[in-house]
């Protein structure tokens, strides 16, 4: 789960390296942002061509302050869905185990052992 305060602090202090995007799980765009910054910085002295990647990077960096909240919300929704699916899988597996116990296919001790393993 992402912390908004950490994401905004990373945006402010290491946003030029895409640190906030990497923290939020956007690895490709984070490294692309880092690459734009270094490419622009390395080529700024070459006929001013470095201005183009730096301008793209700067606009992207400013826009990201508005996108961080949306990315955090999206990640939170993914975590909630993942936990819900995990709980549904656990419930299904427990029902199947109980049916095996009720039908006499497994003993009470084996049922309890498998249930304990399931809830780990």
State the main characteristics.
single chain; mainly alpha; 120 residues; 5 helices
Report a brief summary of the structure:
By secondary structure, the chain is mostly helical.
Structure, explained:
The chain has 120 residues and is mainly α. The chain has 5 helices and no strands. Helix 1 runs antiparallel to helix 4 and helix 3 runs antiparallel to helix 4. The two termini are 21 Å apart. The model has no long low-confidence stretch (mean pLDDT 91).
Could you tell me the mean pLDDT? 91
How many strands appear in the DSSP assignment?
A: 0
Order of helices and strands: HHHHH
Quickly count the helices.
Answer: 5
Structural class by secondary-structure content: mainly alpha
Low-confidence segments, given as residue ranges, are none
Q: Main beta sheet, described?
A: none
Q: Topology, pairings included?
A:
Layout: H1 4-14, H2 19-23, H3 27-43, H4 51-103, H5 108-118
């Amino acid at each position: 789960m992402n912390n908004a305060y950490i994401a905004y602090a990373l945006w402010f202090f290491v946003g030029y390296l895409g640190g906030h995007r990497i923290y939020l799980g956007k690895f490709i765009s984070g490294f692309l942002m880092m690459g734009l910054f270094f490419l622009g910085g390395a080529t700024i002295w070459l006929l001013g061509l470095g201005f183009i990647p730096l301008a793209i990077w700067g606009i992207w960096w400013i826009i990201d302050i508005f996108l961080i909240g949306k990315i955090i919300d999206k990640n939170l929704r993914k975590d909630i869905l993942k936990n819900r699916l995990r709980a549904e899988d656990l419930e299904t597996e427990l029902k199947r185990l109980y049916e095996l116990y009720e039908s006499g296919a497994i003993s009470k001790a084996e049922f309890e052992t498998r249930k304990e393993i399931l809830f780990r």
